[in-house]
């Protein structure tokens, strides 16, 4: 898929689909909930492009997926149980995903919702992530993001009866030395969002505590592509803690020992 054609198609599609008032309404919702969903009745991306991205993700999963099963102290020992395709593999392996994440048309449209500039310059390992859940109890446990914004492509979703929904608590704060997630969950209302295959959603990741509801059975699949972007205020952040979990430092250390 030619990237200039994709950019042109996106520009025409968004201009025809969203009025200035519709964008303002989305902005109000985003600032209230930290979350805006684009579904079959209010698409952000033409269906054909979403289908092509899904095929790209499936190809990358087959070639590069790595299993993770761990807990993170910086998020109060919440679990990560899933397979992943890391950012570097996606960057090298998909020109389409790489182009969409830097799309001037897409970023300018989403900036109308966020009310601030969206900056694609983030650390190489955070730029993208594909997660694939397929076993009972697979989940991306409660967490925040280091950067402000993420666009999540819900490429394949299980039936609601099997779990996999997104849960959010907006307007919260991450202290990596004392995350106090259970205290936040007791004090605040949890928003639960059902998703269908092909949906996308924009998330304010640094101030929205969020997780995926664990899968309740084997044999269903949940696959997402995460594109991460910064705000201007994020550019001076120092990234610390054990939350670079997708890199699996233990596995890297074991590989280094095996090679020595």
The total count of strands amounts to 11
pLDDT below 50 for ≥5 consecutive residues: which ranges?
253-260
Q: How much is the average pLDDT?
A: 92
Name of the level-1 CATH class: Mainly Beta
The first-to-last residue Cα distance is: 43 Å
CATH superfamily: q2cbj1_9rhob like domain
Q: Strand content of the residues, in percent?
A: 15-25%
The CATH architecture classification is: Sandwich
C-alpha-based Rg, rounded: 18 Å
- Helix amount: 25-40%
Structural class: alpha+beta
CATH topology, what is it called? Jelly Rolls
Count of helix runs: 8
Question: Strand-and-helix sequence, N→C?
Answer: HHEHEEHHHEEEEHEEEEH
Shape: globular
Quick one: biggest sheet? 8 strands, antiparallel
Count of discrete domains:
1
Task: Describe this protein with a few key phrases.
260 residues, disordered C terminus, eight-stranded antiparallel sheet, 8 helices, Jelly Rolls, alpha+beta, single chain
How are the elements arranged and paired?
Blueprint: H1 3-17, H2 20-33, E1 35-38, H3 47-64, E2 66-72, E3 78-85, H4 87-93, H5 95-101, H6 104-114, E4 128-133, E5 139-140, E6 149-156, E7 166-169, H7 181-187, E8 191-193, E9 199-204, E10 209-212, E11 222-229, H8 249-259
Antiparallel strand pairs: 1-9, 2-3, 3-4, 3-5, 4-11, 6-9, 6-11, 7-8, 7-10
Describe this structure as you would to a colleague:
- The chain is built from eight helices and eleven strands.
- By secondary structure, the protein is of the alpha+beta class.
- Residues 253-260 have low confidence and may be disordered.
- Helices cover 35% and strands 23% of the residues.
- Helix 1 packs parallel to helix 6 (104-114) and helix 2 (20-33) packs across helix 6.
- The N and C termini lie far apart (43 Å).
- The strands form two sheets. Strands 1, 2, 3, 4, 5, 6, 9 and 11 form an eight-stranded antiparallel sheet that branches. Strands 8-7-10 form a three-stranded antiparallel sheet, covered by helices on one side.
- The protein has helices at 3-17, 20-33, 47-64, 87-93, 95-101, 104-114, 181-187, 249-259, and strands at 35-38, 66-72, 78-85, 128-133, 139-140, 149-156, 166-169, 191-193, 199-204, 209-212, 222-229.
- The chain has a single domain (3-232), classed as Jelly Rolls.
- The longest helix has 18 residues, at 47-64.
